[in-house]
Each structure stands twice: as C-alpha cells, then as structure tokens.
Amino acid sequence: xxxxxxxxxxxxLLATGLTGCSGGSFSFPDASVNPTATQVGSITGSxxxxxxxxxxxxxxxxxxxxxxxxxxxxxxxxxTGATTKNGSWTNSGNPSDEFVPATDxxxxxxxxxxxxxxxxxxxxxxxxxxxxxxxxxxxxxxxPSFPSAANYTYAISKVVVTGSGSNYTYTxxxxxxxxxxxxxxxxxxxxxxxxxxxxxxxxxxIAGSGATALSTTQFSxxxxxxxxxxxxxxxxxxxxxxxxxxxAVNMAMLGICPSxxxxxxxxxxxxxxxxxxxxxxYALAGFVNSSATSQAGNDEFHIGSSGTTQAxxxxxxAALTAANLYNIQGGPVSTTFAGEGxxxxxxxxxxxxxxxxxxxxxxxxxxxxxxxxxxTYRITSATGVTPVTFSGTLSTTCQNLFQYASDNxxxxxxxxxxxxxxxxxxxxxxxxxxNIASFGQGEGTGTTNSSGVxxxxxxxxxxxxxxxxxxxxxxxxxxxxxxxxxxxxxSWVVPIVxxxxxxxxLLNPLWLPYRAAIDSQGNIWVANTTNATKFNxxxxxxxxxxxxxxxxxxxxxxxxxxWVTSQTTSTLQEFNSAGGTVQAGITxxxxxxxxxxxxxxxNDVWVGSVNGTSLVKLNNAGTxxxxxxxxxxxxxxxSAIDSKGSFWAADFSSSNVQKVPTANNTVTYNLTGxxxxxxxxxxxxxxxxxxxxxxxxxxxxEISSTGNFLSGxxxxxxxxGNGTNPxxxxxxxxxxxxVGFSGTSAATSSLAEFNNNGVYxxxxxxxxxxxTRGAQVDSSGNVWVVEYSAGSLxxxxxxxxxxxxxxxxxxxxxxxGAKP
Length: 820
Known about the structure:
This protein is mostly beta strands. It has 8 helices and 48 strands. Strands 3, 4, 5, 6, 8 and 16 form a 6-stranded antiparallel β-sheet that branches. The chain has a 6-stranded antiparallel β-sheet with strand order 13-12-15-10-11-14, with no helix packed on it.
C-alpha cells in the first residue's frame, strides 16, 4: 500500500489545477457535501463525449483488482447511499452495459449513478476506498445531447444546392457555429426555401469526408432530388440528432485513496472526456488483461495487479502519472469552442516536465470521432462476459477505429457477430485507448526460423495507409480538442521530457547522462558525467549526491542503494536511497577504468573495466571477493547477471562477449561473430537468454544460457536501417526487448521494441532529442531513456509491460524479466 506521504503528494498535484472552473457552454458549481472522515467524499463532475454532454451515462467508481494483472476491478458504490444527481443505476451483468462483469472483485454487483441532462453527476459521500489504492471513474454510454432543443437547433440563413440528375448536395449556412455537427450525424430540416416550391424536409445524415468538409458555420446533406441554385430560407431550421452511443466509455483517474480524510477539499470538480480517458488508459495500460481471449476481459473493468508490494507500488505510481497528463479539475481549454474542451496538460503537474499535449489532444479527437458518429451497436445477450448476439448499427468511424486499435496491434477485419469471441478489435473508446497505448506504432508480425532469419510484416497497416495515419485521419470537421497535431506522428507513444536546465555544468543534473537504473520504489537513478542524480517516478529530482566524478554506469542493490563507477578516477562509490554516501572512493587492484557494474541476487557487486583485463567481484561491504584476470576481457562496457548468478560481459574492443558463471568464476564462453561487433550493452531475459547490442553492426544479438546464438548470423535489426548506434537495452515483464538507438543526429535518435522472438515491433522517435541511451522499464510499464547529447530524461508512458525492479531483486526472487 502507499504511504501517507504519497497520498499527500497527489493532493498537491491535483490542487495545482483550476478548481470549480467552467468550460464549454456550462458553468458548474463546486461540490459542497461534507462527508465523514472515513469516506470517499462527494464527487461531482461532468461527462462529455465528442461535442456534447453525455446524457444518461452510467458512472461507476472503482479501484483496480489485486488478484492478478487484468483482474476484475472493485466497485466502490453501493445502494445505501444518499442523494445522486440523476438517480442511481444497478448493473447486474451483461448485457445492461457491455463488458461490465456480473460481480466485482468483492463479489457484489456494480452500482453507479446516471448523468443528468447537462452530463453532470454527483456521487454522495458515503462510499469508502482502500487507502493507498488508485481510484478512477468509468462512464458508460450516454446520449450526446444538450438539455433542450434550443441548444442544438439552428436557424438556416442560406442554402446552396449543387448537382444534377439524381445526385444533389445541399449546403446549409447557419447563424451560429453548429458545435454538434459531424459527418454521419442525423439532422432534421424544417421550413421552406424562399422562391421555390421544393422543400427538402425530413431527416437526413450529414454528408462529406475529410477535415475540410464541415466549417464552423456550414454542413451538407445529400439528396437524389433538387434544383441547383442559391436560396434564402424562410424560417428554415436544422435540428441535429445525437444518438445514444454504447461505445462512448470515458474514464478519469481521481488519484490515490488518501490514508486519512477524503477526496473532499482535494477534488472540487471532475471533467471527464476523451482526453481524460486517454490519460487514464496510457497510465494504466500495463495493468489491463492483455492476455484475454476476447474483447471482454481486456477493458476498463479489468484493471489489476498481482497484489504484491511492488505491484501495488507500480500501479499507484501509474495513477500519479495520469495527473501529469491531464488535470481532472480543469487545465488548459480548447482554442475552438467545440464541446467541453478541457485539454491535456502542456507541462507536468509539478512543472518539471514537458507533456506532448498535441498528441494527447489528437488521441482525444480520434476517440471523439467514434462518439460523434451514428453508432448504436451493442451487445444484446452474453454468457458471462462473452458476447453472443448484437444489435444496432456499427458506424464506419467506430469500425475503423476498432479495427486498427486491436488488442494485439494487428489490423483486424473480424466482423462483429458471434466471431467476436475470438476477434481482437476494440469494442469501445476506452478499450481502443488501452490498445493504442500498448501498441503505439502497431505490432510487427512475423516468425524467426532456427537460423534466426526473420519473416516480418512490419506493423499493423492495410495496403492503403499505415497505423499512425489511419488513426490520425479519423476525426473530421470541427474537432473538440485543439491545439492538436497538424500531421500524422511517427507513432502514438506519449513521452514526457524532463530536461536539464541547471545551467552550470557542475550542478547540472542531466549533464551528458550515460545510464539509468530503477529501484524498488520506481525511482530513477541517472549516472551523468559529473554526478549521479535520483528522480522520483514523476521525474522530480530527489538527490544529487556530491563527490561523484565521471559517473559512467550504475546498478542498484537489494537495499535500494546505488553503486556508481567512475572511469576517470578508477573508483566505485555507494550511495543510499536518501543520497547519502555509504562508501566513497572504493578502489581495487583490478580497477582500470571501471565502467560496467552489476549486482547479483546475493547483493554482491561485479565491476568490469574498459582499460584492463580484469573482472572484480566485491561483497556488499565493498570488500574484494575475487579478481578474474583474463586476456578475453579488453573493454567491458556492459554487463548483466542471469538468474543463476552468472556474469555476462559486453566487450567493446574485442567485439566478443563473455560469460562467467559464479560457481567457478572462470570464463566459460568467449563468443564472437554472428553479428557481434563492438558490443556496448547487455540484458538478460526471464529465460536466461542474454541480449547484446552491437554499435558497429547496429543490431541486437541473442545468445542462450548455453552459448548458442539464437539470432542467426546477422542478429536482429530495425527494418530500413532506421536504428543506428544502439546504446541502451532493457527487458520488460512480457520479455520484450527495448533498445535505445543513439543515432548519428537528433533525427536518427530513437527507441525500438522487439518481442522475445526478436521480431521488430516499432521504432519511436523523439523530436528534438539526441543520443538515446539507457532504456529501462519500471514496475508501472513506463520506459525510461536518457538522451546523452540533449541532456534529457524521457518517460515513455505505458508503452511496456511492468517488470520487477531493480534487476538484483528480480534475480533474488526468481522474477528476472517478469511482472511484479
């Protein structure tokens, strides 16, 4: 569970935002209920989808499960509560709301409240949460509609009819911007043209395609009849007809349940929309049930961890990350009036990092495109959580979104019928957001034969367009969230950039950073040219110990102490988790430019040098246990320990790699060739296979624990030569390999992902950065890299599977390369 100090830190994060502010077309009051000290507290908010409030949505208050990753959540609402905003809702399982299990983690039905005619809701203060556990909201469905016809009925000032034969287009100009107008929406035209007897009355569907089809004051209808010309209407109006959309499922992360007190006074008002959904999905992506055999189970109601101490820490840290992406109390507001309009953050809650606002807003617009469409498709019967029969119409926009945003990242053309049970498409926008977060560039598919030769179909794309652009092109018309991207991105990853701004080289916390390592609490230690710096999981500097000269590499032991090598002074230093010096200037006869360092499951420390032929092993007190002098060692730049305690060395100068078992402390394997050339880093997965990156060959080489090459004669590479000079490597909890490519310039610096078979998944560029190194995965599923030349620490939110940290703890507990 989380400590009191962590709960208070969330309060500080949330309090930095605007409270009780207004946005869009409504102004909402702050909550004023005074709950008891042991309860959640009154939670009041609004739920918007697309361009309008979602009326009649069912709002659930939940916390993640603890019986396994992707386990069913715990519902926090019950039937004995006080007043609700618009009545209560009891869900007794499918098909009432799709994918809502019949019972929650505690074995009781899910209860909720409904949104009113303004999309507002109020949860009274008689519900309790578990201290230290994340709490979030889910809002299912709803009718995107304003509370009265006057809010979506527009006076038509001009009609232009074009076309001939049986193909006519009516373009209507209205007096005020039609915020609800979107392509595919139903509209009823009433009234008549002046000077003509033809009146296109009745209900139609707004026509068009592309981002310029609708302006802020015009929309079009298609008709088989008409008379070309320009007309001045006489009392003609257009009434837009939003439809209840079962795929409109929003989320909002409230934060960590306080260990004392309530959310009252901390959260004044909650703004739920597609951007809050994206922020929550990216933060929690590592905890969804990615191994589900159908869409049911891989969704917003199946978020959980194993319940171990580090797993709970990881999911709590993830919840705090959501507040860095979006302020649920109201942050920036859209530059276009097109809905409620609350945007993603531009900087983190603490002001220490840059958030990719336009990417998050674009993702919100992508989800909103589905909400805005005429989508009525839903489950009508189910067996447990497995869909059986369906009704309604699946809109083209939702269908395109769901086919690309699949739960395995591969474009899925499965038809929505009984075969859905084995399909991979998303079924609502929250599920789509989870899938996009997990597969930011789609998923490479392919196989590797016994010789290591890959047959790869790169990424999830149709022949017409690739994954990123297909999603980017979904929104049309006046999007609800702006500013947003002006072109399709390289990928849909969400990187937060924590940059160096200290000025002075000596005081600079990110001056030419080399390596990174993550402790058991999710803190990140970075070895820099002039110091070693500790950042917490929100990228806030905690400590910068003094006396570190030329820090080149670091490793974290079972006590969360950090060991830092200094090539320039030929010393090893130990600091505790508070940044205090435990041992300074440790020297040994075998140190000759000590560079790499690793800690095993016995808490012993292994140090390799770049200017000598020795490998030194020390106990945790800093006493030399053994010195292995071998001509095979020439320049050990990277090192890792496997589950048996054996040491693997990446030798840059000799282009060889070596394995030294702890049992006999001698070089068992001294391997070369098969793609190895100037190896700089190594990581070991859960099968004890060692993965090396070779900077000269720009590749990834896999070697088994018995010394067999598993990556063929040339190793694994990024297709198209888009990965050069690899300088960082890490393994996540699914066994996927993350490689930082330093590149030759800012344009070629990137982070690549391979699955455990060596199949390339994606390559993610970071504009403006340079020199990607030190790729490491934390227990929340975030990937952390350091940018050597740019002097930055980057957190790639929710892209990976959570993994046990530090490596020494994974080795000790037989959880190397595994989920906590």
